[in-house]
Amino acid sequence: MPLALNINPRKYLQALFSACQNVANEASASSSEQKEFNLYNEHIDNLHQFSGDYDAVIICLGGKASSLPELTNKLPLRTCRGVIAEFRLPSDTVEKYGSRSPSILSDAWLAFQGPRTVSVGSTWQWKSDNHDPSVSNEEARSAMEELLPKASAVYPGISKWDYVRARAGIRAMPPLTANGSLPLLGCLNDVIGERSNSAFWLVGGLGARGLLYHGLAGKLTAKAVISSDENMIPSEFTCWKAVKASR
């Protein structure tokens, strides 16, 4: 894919937040109604802490969504831990990865960040509940044994690169359906089963393709929340609730 880009998630989210702030400021300047867009960094133990404070609460916690007591054992998410290995080309190596050469998506993906830095991923450890981003020496060694042969098959030159470090994360994988693995969207009030002054919504199960889905999932959910109508979301994204309720 000649026009494909590598996205740094943290920098991307920071830029997205700034863009939303700009939209709010522009809207406030052009109308008499003041609009605010704020970030509050708080620890939340349960959804009751939000009750009455907001008209709507959208839960976007990825693999940790089920850690909320109100959602424990109520979401059909499959957790999967993945390890990513980072490599760097030695400074005394004349040959470097060309600036116009692509990143590679195969059995192992290689995300090049400049001519001398690459991330290689990722492993799949199903049903893992290990949310620790740090990786032990044993886990790193096991990941290297799995990833390097796959990476070498599409880029033999990886053998010249030095291993730097490994990091890990948890994917929240949605269930497999006839339509594929689709994100889990929808209102959660009937799932939680408790009356509240707030409406609770879910955006979850984006899995390993969250960057592809997050824009669509966010847009559909925003329309549904504003209109208080879950039917604004296509049934393919909300049918998980009927399946869950029938079990």
TrEMBL record:
Protein name (record): FAD dependent oxidoreductase domain-containing protein
Gene3D superfamilies for the chain: D-Amino Acid Oxidase, subunit A, domain 2, FAD/NAD(P)-binding domain
Superkingdom classification of source: Eukaryota
Domain FAD dependent oxidoreductase: 6-223
Originating species: Aegilops tauschii subsp. strangulata (Goatgrass)
Cellular compartments per GO CC: cytoplasm
Pfam families associated with the record: DAO (PF01266)
